[in-house]
Write a structure and sequence with these properties.
The complex is a heterodimer of chains A (about 160) and B (about 725).
Chain A (H helix, E strand, L loop, with lengths): L1 E4 L2 E4 L8 H8 L18 E4 L2 E4 L5 H4 L3 E3 L12 H8 L9 H14 L5 H8 L9 H10 L11
Parallel strand pairs in A: 1-5
Antiparallel strand pairs in A: 1-2, 3-4, 3-5
Chain B lengths: L22 E3 L5 E4 L9 H13 L6 E4 L17 H27 L4 H5 L2 E3 L2 E3 L5 E4 H4 L29 H6 L14 E5 L8 E4 L2 H5 L4 E7 L2 E6 L2 H14 L1 E3 L10 H7 L2 E9 L8 E10 L11 E7 L2 E6 L4 H12 L6 E5 L11 H12 L7 E4 L2 H6 L7 E10 L4 E10 L52 E9 L14 H19 L3 H7 L4 H14 L1 H6 L5 E9 L6 E10 L3 E11 L6 H21 L27 E6 L15 H16 L10 H13 L1
Parallel strand pairs in B: 2-3, 7-17, 15-16, 19-20, 23-24
Antiparallel strand pairs in B: 1-2, 4-5, 5-6, 7-10, 8-11, 9-10, 12-20, 13-18, 14-15, 14-17, 18-19, 21-22, 22-23
Classes of the chains: A alpha+beta (about 160), B alpha+beta (about 725).
């Protein structure tokens, strides 16, 4: 089966019902997509499929075939961090960082749809993502940091 | 010159005195740092790197932090109790100060400098300079392992180099780009994937399973049954996951009813046989005058670690070497249990740390490592990676112990607490591996030749205690007594979870202080200050109150809005922390704001401290509002994120943190200081909003209604 991941074509030998996450991590060696629950309840394995943030643990391979899959590794271009990734570094927006990949994916989706999100928009977009370390407010600040003029609006 | 064994050296240096155990200066311009403490997502590697940069006088890109390993690292025991900056930081600060002096001396010798010239040498990013700034040599040019191949003299005086710029976390760039970093991401040549079917309830035994059916599944390499321990190894991860699902269908279990009534945990805790211990007491020298009595009881349920990632480990076994990669907080402790279970000497068991998701105590990491080792033994020479399921993570890992606290107080007619009696009822808060002769790893009790199930203990109070942590009042009461009742049966496995007993003890005592203050019509802030002489305690209380504009918030009544304050000195010997919480108790309880003032002594890595304080506080809000392990009489039933919900983005309060830096004071940890004060501040704010005293966590609307009804009836 051919998959289009981060702009490259990957040919994989796997059952069409295999959850995408296992293929990304083990066949394509893209470890940035993290397994959290296997039941689409925590957000840590999200990837973009044709621009939509979805849990890869709950996406069978056949549903990704012929579509553009973007993982966290695909957010940076030729080694340069994306503005969003850089904002996470600047805000030191992580503790353990296990949940960060999924949040970067959903925040990227949000910013593609809405270039001027409010703090409430960001929290709504990330509400399906769980963070156990309590880094939420830093993560919200990181997303708002790249929204022009929004830094001063962040009440957190 | 060497130190004598009786010289007490800073932190873990005392037990690991050879400089080269900690540090190597390399000719390639790098510095290798070995610590026995492990990165749990708390940023300790960065805080320690900061200390090395500051003391040695080098920039961060030169630092190579080596992951802790039983083979090469100083043995620093467990990474826990907010002790890492003290233990490892204290040692590294001393080691680096001494290494710097040794290298300056080496430069002086090589260039035949006089003593007075040598005394003026300085270091700038490893370059050794004379008093007029002329570089004459460098660490790298002089690099020689022999220079650090001796025991510390303990004589060097840290602080010789001006502090370098605050470091950003070393690991975050990898984490925002998705580079492999976690043990979950490890791939060893020929690695196989394993899954373990844990018994479905704590008392379950395996009656039977037809392994031939699983052995015949595609991709399955081996199945393992040893008593009630059941696992499968497959060539790829999805094959292992499918085989696990098949095993779950095929396995037949006997499941006795061993669990208590979830809805009355305080009664269960009080009804057990106990090991009762007087934690401490102070008797009044003057007789009590006329006084008013107060008493109340508080509790918390069993709380799950609920780490973002399921526990995971990689193991490889041969007849004379067991290698394990784990996110355990105590690699040496884990090795001790594995040597017993596998009948191998210490030098044939190698345990290496690899990062996992955030860890807040003794979670499933060690158990998963044991699972991986047991499966690896079935396929000698092949590495096996075992990743637990989410269900396992929420139901098989040890829990933070349920607790009940009873407090009684006498209050004099002039409004001072004159006597305070604190009783805490709980399972022990420590069941880490390596502390008794009997392995405590989950699988140990499931084997055909099982190890007897152990009951959690409490560490001695000198090491911070467990159930009794913070049962001793922080205030200056004329008389007090604290008593701990540790349950001797343990139907639900408990071990250390962030702040251990301090969470519920502080919640109870700081709620109770508030009950007395409001009962007397006193301002809760003023009432606390009335009972404190410690200036650092007063400073954090006043700072938090000032940030929150306490008096204004308390005097401006808005329906449904409440504001509460709480304070504790963690472990009575650690960080001072005061919290003001603002809540909205409309149709649901929301924590809107937390203002937190903390004093951790010398602030080594300011943003790291703030991050830990924020994180601990938000986690405590989650515990307080939402979290309780659910179970029936056989099984833990809260094994998904739906049945064990935690705080979400839309529910997280704004958190403002003030760190009172005390550069002249020793550093203490920050990670656990907020848990108790946050829970109490919320309870006190709920009372301020609703005139309802919630004494049992979590504060669901159902619990608040129950508390209101109970007050009406009393």
């Amino acid at each position: 089966m051919n998959l289009n991941i981060n702009g490259s074509t990957h040919t994989v030998q796997a059952d069409a019902n295999t959850p995408l996450i296992y293929v990304l991590r083990n066949d394509c060696d893209l470890k940035g997509t993290r397994f959290g629950c296997g039941a689409a309840q925590c957000g840590s394995c999200h990837v973009l499929i044709d621009g939509v943030s979805v849990p890869s643990c709950d996406t069978p391979l056949w549903a990704a075939e012929g579509k553009a899959v973007t993982t966290v590794e695909g957010l940076s271009q030729s080694g340069e961090l994306s503005a969003l990734q850089q904002a996470f570094v600047d805000e030191q927006a992580a503790q353990c960082g296990y949940c960060i990949s999924g949040m970067l994916i959903s925040a990227t989706e949000l910013l593609q749809k809405n270039q001027q999100p409010t703090e409430a928009d960001v929290r709504t977009a990330l509400d399906k993502h769980l963070c156990r370390c309590g880094s939420h407010n830093r993560i919200v600040r990181a997303v708002l940091r790249i929204v022009s003029g929004a830094a001063s609006k962040a009440a957190v | 010159m060497t130190t004598t064994a009786s010289t007490v050296l800073p932190g873990s240096l005392n037990a690991n005195r050879r400089l080269s155990q900690w540090l190597a200066i390399n000719a390639d311009g790098t510095v290798t740092v070995r610590t026995g403490k492990v990165e749990l997502g708390q940023g300790i590697a960065t805080a320690l790197a900061q200390i090395v940069c500051d003391e040695l006088g080098v920039v961060a890109p030169r630092i190579r932090m080596v992951a802790a390993s039983t083979a090469t690292s100083p043995n620093e025991g467990v990474t826990a109790g907010s002790m890492s900056v003290h233990d490892s930081g204290g040692a590294l600060r001393q080691v680096c100060a001494e290494a710097r002096a040794i290298y300056l001396q080496a430069a002086a010798t090589r260039f035949n400098l006089s003593d007075s010239e040598a005394a003026l040498l300085t270091v700038r990013d490893g370059s050794i300079q004379t008093s007029n700034g002329e570089p004459i040599s460098s660490y790298w040019a002089l690099a020689d392992d022999a220079l650090l191949d001796g025991e510390t003299t303990g004589l060097a005086v840290p602080g010789g180099v001006t502090s370098t710029a605050a470091l950003q976390r070393l690991d975050i760039p990898d984490k925002v780009t998705g580079r492999p970093r976690f043990v979950h991401d490890m791939m060893l040549p020929g690695m196989l994937f394993g899954c373990v079917l844990h018994p479905p309830s704590p008392g379950a035994t395996l009656l039977g399973v037809d392994l031939a059916i699983v052995d015949a599944l595609p991709g399955v390499v081996a199945t393992v049954r040893d008593g009630s321990f059941l696992g499968v190894v497959a060539s790829d991860e999805y094959a292992a996951v499918k085989a696990l699902a098949k095993l779950a269908v095929l396995a037949k279990w006997q499941e006795p009813e061993t669990l208590p009534d979830m809805n009355d945990l305080p009664a269960f805790l009080r009804a057990q046989l106990h090991d009762t211990m007087l934690v401490g007491e102070k008797k009044s020298e003057t007789p009590l005058g006329e006084s008013k009595q107060f008493q109340a009881s508080y509790s918390r349920p069993f709380i799950a670690h609920a780490s973002a990632a399921p526990s995971c480990a990689v193991a490889r076994y041969s007849a004379d070497l067991l290698e394990v990669w784990t996110h355990s907080q105590g690699i040496f402790n884990l090795r001790a249990d594995l040597t017993v279970m596998f009948g191998m000497p210490e030098n044939q068991v190698s345990v290496q740390h690899a990062e996992g998701a955030g860890s807040y105590g003794h979670n499933g990491a060690d158990d998963a490592a044991c699972d991986a080792a047991l499966l690896a033994r079935a396929v000698p020479g092949r590495a096996v990676r075992v990743q637990w399921t989410r269900e396992d993570e929420l139901s098989q890992a040890p829990f933070g112990a349920a607790m009940a606290v009873d407090i009684k107080a006498e209050v004099s007619s002039d409004g001072r607490i004159t006597d305070w009696q604190h009783d805490v009822w709980s399972n022990g808060h420590s069941m880490r591996p390596g502390r008794s002769k009997t392995p405590v790893l989950l699988a140990a009790a499931h084997l055909a030749k099982p190890y007897e199930k152990q009951v959690a203990i409490n560490m001695p109070l000198a090491g911070g205690g467990g159930s009794e942590r913070n049962s001793v009042p922080t205030y200056d009461f004329a008389a007090w007594r604290a008593t701990s009742h540790r349950c001797l049966s343990m139907p639900i496995r408990t071990s250390s979870l962030r702040s251990l007993g301090a969470h519920c003890n502080v919640f109870a005592s700081e709620s109770f202080v508030d009950e007395i203050a409001t009962g007397l019509g006193a301002d809760p802030l003023e009432f606390r200050l009335r009972h404190l002489t410690d200036p650092r305690a007063k400073d954090v209380l006043n700072a938090a109150a000032s940030m929150a504009d306490w008096h204004n918030l308390r005097s401006t009544k808005i329906e449904g809005r409440g504001v509460g304050i709480a304070f504790a000195r963690y472990k009575n010997t650690g960080a001072w922390c005061a919290v003001v919480a603002l809540i909205d108790a409309g149709h649901e309880l929301r924590v809107k704001n937390l203002w937190i003032a903390v004093d951790v002594g010398r602030a080594v890595h300011l943003d790291g401290i703030v991050n830990q304080i924020e994180g601990g506080a938000i986690q405590a809000v989650s515990w307080t509002l939402k979290e309780a392990a659910q179970f029936d009489r056989t099984r833990i039933t809260s094994n998904t994120w739906e049945t064990y919900p935690i705080l979400r983005f839309s529910e997280v309060p704004a958190v403002q943190v003030k760190v009172i830096d005390r550069p002249e004071q020793k550093s203490v940890g920050a990670g656990e200081a907020t848990n108790g004060p946050v829970s109490a501040a919320i309870a006190n704010a709920v009372f301020n909003a609703l005139d309802v005293r919630v004494r049992h966590m979590p504060f669901t609307m159902e619990a608040i209604t129950k508390a209101a009804l109970a007050e009406e009836h009393s």
